[in-house]
Amino acid sequence: MRNRRSTASMLVAAALWVACGMTPALAQQGGPPPAVLVQPAEMKPIADQAEFIGRAAAVDKVELRARVKGFLGPRKFADGDQVKKDQIVFTIEPETYQAAVDQKKAQRDASLAALANAEMQLKRAAELLRTNTGTQVTYDQRLSEQLQAKAQVEDASAQLRDAELQLSYTEIKSPIDGRIGRAAFSPGNLVSPDSGVLATVVSEHPIRVLFPVTQRELLDARREQAADPNGIVVRIRLADGSIYKEKGKIDFIDNTVDAKTDGQIVRATFPNTGGVLTDGQTLRVIIEGETVPTAVAVPQAAIAQDQTGAYLFVVNDKNVVEQKRVRTGVSRDGMVAITSGLQAGERVIVQGQQRVRPGMTVNPTVAPPAASTQKQ
């Protein structure tokens, strides 16, 4: 019962303090002021930026497939190798196709011999006709035979070219420079045009990143670019939160709008010399201005939210806590720009906010740089 009465007495006392306009500072006279960490609000350059979800896409991506049927020969690469254009990466046993080429060559040679004989006979018939020792019928027959022999040569030559083309398909080459992926078939397997993809070659230098942008954001970006053509910078935030070292350049905006999202696909191209970016990788794309404005900035840890909006606590020159309603702007690298409600130089509480109330006297200590950016 005594404990309940003691608790009730404390609640009544607290209510009387509030009703009489008294501050909790009067209640702390029995103990030392609570310690808090503070950091002066300062003018910092903070870039205005927007973030989008994007996906990396290779400039060139080729699926290698068999174009003829046969057994795979020795593989000419290791999974993940960098390959050059026209480099042989797979082979199909060529013996059958080489035999077909040899056969078509023989047929072509035979047709050439027949054509040579037909032309000789035509020439002789023409001479006999000129001297009136031959007939027109014989000449016409020899002419027909010469034309047929010529057609047979053309047909045999076409068949030879087709056989040579089929033979060339037994060497599967990379059509681009790039990195080749995992092989889907091992040597000795029977493959054909129906076997599917044998391996994929991806060109990753440079690499593109595609991301959707709403119409409003696109219009804002175009206005900024009209005012400063070189004023837009594209960056990438990687999966671990770090910023990719290379800057990108927007080089394409899709010519259609998605009716469901009211957005357009924007493409940016980035250097990828270190191979950090991979085709299909999900990334966060950051669009910001080249010129970075300065603003009053405080650590993210200092900002709190309630139903009214954002606020923070400051310590005045008498070490008394004051609550400040603020409007926040751009947030970057653990710092938040304050657009109104705070002046540069004011001491902002960055640690210990849970132990203070407006009007309370505190014992402030300037926070070290590391502590000022950690969320409490």
Tally of DSSP β-strands:
22
Distance between the termini: 38 Å
The number of helical elements comes to 5
**What portion of residues belong to β-strands?**
25-35%
> What is the assigned CATH homologous superfamily of the largest domain?
Efflux pump adaptor protein, beta barrel domain
* Biggest beta sheet summary: 8 strands, antiparallel
Tell me what the CATH architecture of the largest domain is. Answer: Beta Barrel
Average the pLDDT over all residues and give the rounded result.
Answer: 84
Spans of at least 5 consecutive residues whose pLDDT stays below 50 are: 1-28, 371-376
Give the topology string: H per helix, E per strand.
HEEEEEEHHEEEEHEEEEEEEEEEEEH
Domain YknX-like C-terminal permuted SH3-like: 296-363
InterPro entries: MdtA-like_b-barrel (IPR058626), MdtA-like_BSH (IPR058625), RND_pump_MFP (IPR006143), YknX-like_C (IPR058637)
Organism: Reyranella humidisoli
Keywords: Signal
Highlighted features:
signal, 5 helices, rod-shaped, single chain, 22 strands, Helix Hairpins, 8-stranded antiparallel sheet, 3 domains, conserved putative lor/sdh protein from methanococcus maripaludis s2 fold, 376 residues, MdtA-like_b-barrel
Describe the structure.
- The chain is an alpha+beta fold and 376 residues long.
- It is built from 5 helices and 22 strands.
- The strands form 5 sheets. Strands 3, 5, 8, 10, 11, 12, 13 and 14 form an 8-stranded antiparallel sheet that branches.
- The radius of gyration is 41 Å and the shape is rod-shaped.
- The two termini are 38 Å apart.
